């Protein structure tokens, strides 16, 4: 691997990130790495590639474990994660606070809050929405077509590599649950911002039952993305069926080069979410206050680190009314940023681009400073950079019809105000490529079991296998 050998004298000066390999903890400080956003050094053991791969000659451990038992185990895991006495979770949060851009309180809320996904009714609903017949996860389901030909179909346990994102530690909990419910053999590639949460959850599972098939089906390691020595070994159809990849454009592009027959990609690739605010928002003081508050909620989802967080807000108004909206939006973003304790300044490149806009004429107007406390830019069309870190770009339009031309396949969530006009736009937004439309202020929560990024993920994860049994003899069933 392309990693720096650890100087043992520095062993106490770096954050330690152990691995979890098919039920066993792997500790050590053999390799040094740097976190993506803060450049903090953390140390890992070497990857034992043989232990990270589950041989295809062995049936996946979870294959014949009933789904109901898997869900019960996940529910118990959620209860343990929420337990204040869980030392694995507490250590995880302590360590992640050193490597992650988000404040400790936000990270703690994310990890503990993610345990809410491990709810029995929620998990059952997710399965039912993803599979027309969930029995296919537990058994070979008999079929017969109109010609009388018989067969059996099963959603067979896949072998998955999960490339996890760095922006949301909650995704680790969700990915573990989904991998378990499809009975997969799972290898989780952790991010440099969070090489801790996945292992903490798996250690919690191992404490419940170290020999459970879920525990034996899970491995979590870290390597630097693009490390050819590791990826050319692991990213092969001999070992895995699919890569489930979250992340930015570079991360997805890196994965794509390894794809080929028998080795597929399920991509939660880079997305940008927006808001569309109709003229009704500037019709009264009360509506203006409400729309600004709802829009700020969508901007500040996970302090604007989440894909669902709004970055561009299209406002159907004249310039004067649009500026009033910007003023109130800015005040509410500042309030939320202060309450979260997140005061990260904008990075240098973003600061320079915004400061350049400040010097231009009335085409642009800026509320706030580039100090990370919250900022709003008003423009006539979207800025050509990616607003992040509590930065919103309000784009004034004469009609929301004009806003639709900026929607494309990279548009994930559209927060809409007023909600009564949503049916008039949903077909058009879907045609442009958008994947989700919600009421303004509701970008964060989602309906349980709904499609994610225009697909039902669990249905995509599994290996669909058919056993053809020929035509039934005449006179038999």
Backbone structural class: alpha/beta
Radius of gyration: 24 Å
What would you say the CATH architecture of the largest domain is?
3-Layer(aba) Sandwich
Number of helices: 16
What does this structure look like?
One of its GO terms (molecular function) is long-chain-fatty-acyl-CoA reductase activity. It catalyses: a long-chain fatty aldehyde + NADP(+) + CoA = a long-chain fatty acyl-CoA + NADPH + H(+). Keywords: NADP, Oxidoreductase. InterPro entries: Ald_DH/histidinol_DH (IPR016161), CoA_reduct_LuxC (IPR008670). The chain has helices at residues 49-52, 67-82, 87-99, 104-114, 120-130, 170-181, 197-208, 213-216, 228-234, 249-256, 285-299, 319-340, 348-358, 400-404, 422-432, 457-461; strands at 4-5, 15-16, 19-21, 24-26, 31-34, 41-44, 141-144, 149-156, 159-163, 185-189, 218-221, 242-246, 264-268, 272-277, 310-316, 365-368, 375-379, 391-397, 411-417, 436-439, 463-471. It is α/β, with parallel strands linked by helices and 477 residues long. It has 2 domains: 4-269 and 456-461, 3-Layer(aba) Sandwich (Aldehyde Dehydrogenase, Chain A, domain 1), CATH 3.40.605.10; 272-439, Aldehyde Dehydrogenase, Chain A, domain 2 (3-Layer(aba) Sandwich), CATH 3.40.309. Helix 3 crosses helix 4 and helix 11 (285-299) packs across helix 12 (319-340).
């Amino acid at each position: 691997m392309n990693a720096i050998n650890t100087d043992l004298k520095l062993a106490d000066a770096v954050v330690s990130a152990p691995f979890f390999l098919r039920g066993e903890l792997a500790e050590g400080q053999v390799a040094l790495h740097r976190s993506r956003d803060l450049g903090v050094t953390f140390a890992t053991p070497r990857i034992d590639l043989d232990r990270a791969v589950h041989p295809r000659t062995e049936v996946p451990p979870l294959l014949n474990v009933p789904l109901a038992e898997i869900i019960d185990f996940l529910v118990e895991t959620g209860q343990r994660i929420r337990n204040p006495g869980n030392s694995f979770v507490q250590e995880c949060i302590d360590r992640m606070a050193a490597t992650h851009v988000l404040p400790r309180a936000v990270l703690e809320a994310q990890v503990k809050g993610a345990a809410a996904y491990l709810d029995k009714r929620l998990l059952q609903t997710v399965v039912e929405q993803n599979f027309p017949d969930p029995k296919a996860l537990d058994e070979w389901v008999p079929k017969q077509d109109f010609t009388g030909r018989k067969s059996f179909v099963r959603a067979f346990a896949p072998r998955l590599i999960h490339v996890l994102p760095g922006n949301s530690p909650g995704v680790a909990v969700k990915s573990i649950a989904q991998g378990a419910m499809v009975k997969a053999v799972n290898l989780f590639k952790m991010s440099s911002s969070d090489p801790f949460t996945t292992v903490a959850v798996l250690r919690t599972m191992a404490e419940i039952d170290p020999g459970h098939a879920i525990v034996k089906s899970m491995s979590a390691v870290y390597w630097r993305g693009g490390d050819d020595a590791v990826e050319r070994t692991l990213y092969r159809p001999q070992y895995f069926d699919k890569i489930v990849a979250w992340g930015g454009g570079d991360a997805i592009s890196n994965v794509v080069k390894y794809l080929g027959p028998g080795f597929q990609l399920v991509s939660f690739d880079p997305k940008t979410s927006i808001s569309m605010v109709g003229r009704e928002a500037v019709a009264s003081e009360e509506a203006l206050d409400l729309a600004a508050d709802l829009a700020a909620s969508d901007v500040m989802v996970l302090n604007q680190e989440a894909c669902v967080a709004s970055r561009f807000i299209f406002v159907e108004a004249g310039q004067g009314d649009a500026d009033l909206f910007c003023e109130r939006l800015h005040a509410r973003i500042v309030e939320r940023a202060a309450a979260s304790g997140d005061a990260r300044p904008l990075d240098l490149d973003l600061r320079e681009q915004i400061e350049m806009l400040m010097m231009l004429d009335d085409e642009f107007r800026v509320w706030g400073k580039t100090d990370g406390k919250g900022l709003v830019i008003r423009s006539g069309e979207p800025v050509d950079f990616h607003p992040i870190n509590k930065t919103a770009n309000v784009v004034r339009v004469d009609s929301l019809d004009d806003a639709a031309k900026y929607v494309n396949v990279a548009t994930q969530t559209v927060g809409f105000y007023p909600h009564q006009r949503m049916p008039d736009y949903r077909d058009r937004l879907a045609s442009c490529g958008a994947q989700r439309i919600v009421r303004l202020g509701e970008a964060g929560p989602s309906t349980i079991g709904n499609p994610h990024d225009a697909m039902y993920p669990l249905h995509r994860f599994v290996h669909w296998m058919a056993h053809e049994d020929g035509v039934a003899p005449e006179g038999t069933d």
